[in-house]
Design brief:
The protein has 229 residues and is of the alpha/beta class. The protein is 29% helix and 28% strand. The strands form two sheets. It has a six-stranded mixed β-sheet with strand order 7-8-9-4-10-11, sandwiched between helices. Strands 1, 2, 3, 5 and 6 form a five-stranded antiparallel β-sheet that branches. Helix 3 packs parallel to helix 5 and helix 5 runs parallel beside helix 6. Bound molecules: adenosine-5'-diphosphate (2 copies). The site of one adenosine-5'-diphosphate (ADP) has 13 residues, from strand 2 and helix 1. GO terms for molecular function: ATP binding; ATP hydrolysis activity; transmembrane transporter activity. Belongs to the ABC transporter superfamily. Macrolide exporter (TC 3.A.1.122) family.
């Protein structure tokens, strides 16, 4: 089934001196349960699309649906509720609380979520059972990012949006982070969209969506069972 659908989506940044057309008319569907990777040159609109799908930013024109809910009709309070109930985010920087252990960082989310996993369960999902009582400074970059991923999935979101989760990591370590995302997608069925320059994602994703100049250039489909092209 379709989980996201956009129609004629545009985003214009008006910086005074010039207008930047970050999205210049994007029509795309994401399918429930798919792992999609967004590729394309820097500045081609990938983050902008992810931010709009995640309810972090408003479109300039066009429409976006999350299932039957039109996100482009929601106000700030509606978008906040949507993010809280349905979306997990992972960014390049981990934003862990330095004074808390891995378990406690995840607990910040599980303490307030409606139907959370146990923190131990979320950390096990990313292969960090042996690191639960470690502090961020005692962990490698890849481990810290996996704590951030555990934190993002602990509320059992339907959607996981990852903007350059491997951006601060060497490519070997990046692969481990992508494998954690793949494993989440496989075992929990979380619909996942990832922006990454790490080539290893190509073999893991159901679809590769290429961006150029604020538009979708082409879509490569590796698994027609989950995502018809
Ligand atoms: P990436 O290529 O990884 O998306 P960028 O450096 O293009 O990284 O952008 C990172 C963030 O900085 C964006 O999500 C946006 O919020 C902000 N940003 C990018 N370009 C501009 C700009 N020209 N003016 C103001 N903010 C910008
Ligand atoms: P990508 O993720 O593919 O690198 P982005 O979506 O970050 O691309 O950016 C698309 C375009 O929008 C770029 O030209 C970028 O500089 C511009 N942009 C992004 N965020 C902002 C912002 N907050 N203000 C102004 N321009 C921005």
């Amino acid at each position: 089934s379709v989980i996201f659908r956009t129609e004629g989506l545009t985003k214009v940044y008006d910086t005074g001196a010039l207008k930047v057309h970050a999205l210049a008319g994007v029509d795309i569907q994401l399918y429930a349960g798919e792992l999609a990777v967004l590729l394309g040159p820097s500045g081609s609109g990938k983050s902008t699309l992810l931010n709009i799908l995640g309810g972090l930013d408003h479109a300039t024109s066009g429409r976006v649906w999350f299932r039957d809910t039109e996100l482009t009709q929601l106000g700030d309070r509606g978008l906040t509720r949507y993010r809280r109930d349905h979306v997990g985010f992972v960014f390049q920087f981990y934003n862990l609380v330095a004074s808390l252990t891995a378990r406690e960082n995840v607990q910040l989310v599980t303490d307030v979520a409606r139907n959370p996993m146990r923190p131990e369960e979320a950390l096990e999902q990313v292969g960090l059972t042996h690191r639960m009582d470690h502090f961020p400074a005692e962990m490698s970059g890849g481990e810290q990012q996996r704590v951030a991923i555990a934190r993002a999935i602990a509320k059992r979101p339907e959607v996981l949006l990852c903007d350059e989760p491997t951006g601060a990591l060497d490519s070997q370590t990046g692969v481990q982070v992508l494998e954690a995302l793949k494993s989440i997608n496989d075992t929990l069925g979380t619909t996942t969209a990832v922006i990454t320059h790490n080539a290893a994602i190509r073999g893991m994703a159901h679809r590769v969506i290429w961006f150029r100049d604020g538009r979708i250039d082409r879509v490569e489909c590796n698994d027609t069972r989950i995502a018809p092209s």
